[in-house]
Amino acid sequence: MNFYTYKFHTLHTMIIVFKWKHFLETMFLRKLYLSDKEKMFFLSLSEKRKREFLGIRSALRYIGIKMNIFYNEKRKPFLFSEGKHISLSHSFEKIAIAISSYHIGIDIEKLRKDKKIVRIKKKFIRDDESIFIHPNYEEDYLHIIWGIKESLYKLEGGIFYSFLDHYKVSPFCLQKNSRVSCWIIKNSYSQRFSAFYRKIEEHYLVYIIDK
């Protein structure tokens, strides 16, 4: 039985999206082993985060990844495996996992009925980004732009926190399998990346690979 709803695999990168609750209802959870550090981290989480934590690790075991996940001081996940990088995201019932030979950032967001993304758009949408957002598809654009900036934030390791000042998305049109140019704006220079997005049921998945 396949538990994933989306799978992308190349020679250097694997991205999989799961429904995390499947693992809480199966034998995978009972077989899960946590290191002492993971147990300490687990105990510090809220009940919601604990479920997501267990779901992610069960999903990793399901796809054959037996390495433990560790976190740096910014709570960025990493693997003690030379040449492998990991990024994680979860939104409601979905878990997104990316493992790559390159640094990678991933985000998944649900299209919420309460339109929260519209209410908070001033916190992350720059003036030069608002001009290309089509009003008929505002929520789609907002979720994609948020996902891109969240992926850039993870890629950078949580160093730059302002989604207005430190991350920028170039104009784009809603197209399937399209590439979007985006930037991390640093103090002395800017660095360009390419972001990719895909709609999966009621979620938007975004990822950026730093090749």
Automatic annotation (TrEMBL):
<dbReference type="Pfam" id="PF01648">
    <property type="entry name" value="ACPS"/>
</dbReference>
<dbReference type="GO" id="GO:0000287">
    <property type="term" value="F:magnesium ion binding"/>
</dbReference>
<dbReference type="InterPro" id="IPR037143">
    <property type="entry name" value="4-PPantetheinyl_Trfase_dom_sf"/>
</dbReference>
<protein>
    <submittedName>
        <fullName>4'-phosphopantetheinyl transferase superfamily</fullName>
        <ecNumber>2.7.8.-</ecNumber>
    </submittedName>
</protein>
<keyword id="KW-0808">Transferase</keyword>
<dbReference type="GO" id="GO:0008897">
    <property type="term" value="F:holo-[acyl-carrier-protein] synthase activity"/>
</dbReference>
<feature type="domain" description="4'-phosphopantetheinyl transferase">
    <location>
        <begin position="104"/>
        <end position="174"/>
    </location>
</feature>
<dbReference type="InterPro" id="IPR008278">
    <property type="entry name" value="4-PPantetheinyl_Trfase_dom"/>
</dbReference>
